[in-house]
Amino acid sequence: MFDIPKEKREYWNSESVKFLNEIKKEEIIRSEDKTTPVDDNIVVLQPISMKSLFEYDIDCDGKIVGVSCIKENKKYRIDNELWLKVEKCINDFCKIRSFKTKISKDSFRNIVLSWLFEARQKEQISIDFIQYIENELDKRIKDYVVYFPIPYLEVKETYKFAQNIFIGKFPNRNLRTLLTSYREDIYHQNSTFVYTKMKGERQAVVDMAYERCSLAVDIIKACYLTFYSELPKICLDIANDINHLPVERCFIHELSTDDSLHVNENIKSHIVKLDENFIQKLEEHSKDEFVVFIDRIFKQKNTELEKVLIPAIRTYSKMLSNSNNYDKIVDLCSIMDSLILLDEKESIKQALKKYIPLIITDTLEMRQAINKNIEKMYDIRSKYIHHRNTKENITRKELFNYSVIVFSLITKLVIFANSNKYKTMKDIITVIDKKIKNTIEIISFEQEFS
To answer: What would you report as the CA-atom Rg of the chain, rounded to the nearest whole angstrom?
Structure first.
């Protein structure tokens, strides 16, 4: 399962033995209530804070600079040069793809430290370093299904969005029975989830499952919510991503009595039904292209183009959930900047107006309209960012047009990425520049001025 190259295996088996002689061993003074850091800029995090068996020294930048472990009234400590060596070892293994996709760095660090401290305490090696790692990994690697609640989405039947990504209720009847013991605000029999099945160590699986499921929901939002502008506000987010309270509550206490409290609730979002109409809208707005994209990026190493598209999709999703129209425009502009601007010396608006219309459409009239909208967006953005000017009236139609431009840009670039012809945004820009140059070269004004 974990393909550790022979050279790496032999090297770290040898190095790990050398580490043991450098681990400090101290008698614990019982009168000490706590360990005092040697440096004022270092904070000691107790085991409960790190959810591990160890105490970590953290510097002012949040970086681990040392670690200690208490065993049988003795403290064993790794710091300074030795910690740098141990950290190099951890990072070296975490570069191996089979490690990165199966175990979290925090969990792997605990495995490495457990072997080091145990061998140092016993002053003997009962099992080789690499063999210990492999044994521990075998214990931790399991199959999991990870569910993320989507509070404002109703489903009757399970919907398969992409390979191994589903939206629906808990499919396991025993789980549903078990969950009925939870409070209804935590779990309700009608709760909807986006979920995926994965194999790995639990924390790594949770992190990777969230990456997949949240991006799937971001794409669903982009394909559906962009074209939902005329209807009441709805919420399509994994519960972790909701940046506003979905329910406004207030508690009203009548002073004439001490035995009653009235609760007011104001639901801020409307329920959406995942039905045939919902799915049709996804299909109409390039859902299939995004499915190809999401299946590709989790199967193979991402290209530079794919790497810039992922945060663009996430930012676009965040924009759709934002209630402030000015912040929406700031997000839309930042997406265009991140995708198009390759050279910081370029004029922002000029670069965007040059390339975006050409990427999105072949129609001259539409290109001109896009340029006007980009000009207006950046004018609003500039006044808002630099002067917090909110006097500009942004109509629903204008905001819809701005959103569609950016959605169309992302969609076109996703299609380009799926084609496998373009690995970077520079590849696309180069093709456009070449076509522009060829066009200019064939235009002649000789007759006009003769």
So the answer is: 28
**β-bridge mates for residue 218, sequence order:** none
User: Which ranges of 226-347 does DSSP label H, i.e. alpha helix?
Assistant: 276-284, 287-297, 304-321, 325-340
Residue 164, Ramachandran bin (φ over 0: left; ψ between -120 and 50: alpha; else beta): left
CA 263 to mean position of chain CA atoms = 36
134 Cβ contact partners less than 8 Å away, ≥ 6 residues apart: 2, 4
Contact 44, 35 (CB under 8 A): yes
223-260 pLDDT, tens digit per residue, is: 998 988 776 778 888 877 766 655 555 556 555 555 54
Q: Please give the Cα distance from 90 to 111 (Å, whole number).
A: 10
| DSSP class of 35 | P
Asked whether the beta carbons of 425 and 308 are under 8 A apart, the reply is yes
Stated pTM of the model: 0.76
CB atoms within 10 A of CB 344: 6
Alpha-carbon distance 50 to 432, whole Å? 51
State the alpha helices, DSSP H only, in 127-234: 129-140, 173-179, 202-225
- Give the 3-state secondary structure percentages of the chain, helix then strand then coil, rounded to 5: 55, 15, 30
Q: What is the DSSP letter of 52?
A: S
Beta bridge partners of 70: 75
- Could you tell me which residues come within 8 angstroms of residue 333 by beta carbon, excluding any fewer than 6 positions away? 377, 378, 381
3-state secondary structure at position 119 = helix
Residue 426 β-bridge partners = none
Residue 235: CB atoms within 10 A of its CB come to 23
d(CA 322, CA 320): 6
Residue 344 has a pLDDT of: 66
d(CA 138, CA 124): 23
- The terminus-to-terminus CA distance of the chain in angstroms comes to 76
Distance CA 189, CA 412 (A): 40
Q: Is the dihedral of CA 153, 156, 159, 164 positive or negative?
A: positive
In degrees and rounded to multiples of 5, residue 250 shows phi and psi of: -140, 145
In single-letter form, the type of residue at position 185 comes to D
Q: What is the Cα–Cα distance from 373 to 381, expressed in whole angstroms?
A: 12
Q: Which residues of the chain have pLDDT under 50?
A: 31-36, 46-52, 260-261, 448-450
382 CB-near residues (< 8 Å, 6+ apart): none
The SS3 assignment for 421 reads coil
Q: Is 422 helix (H, G, I), strand (E, B) or coil?
A: coil
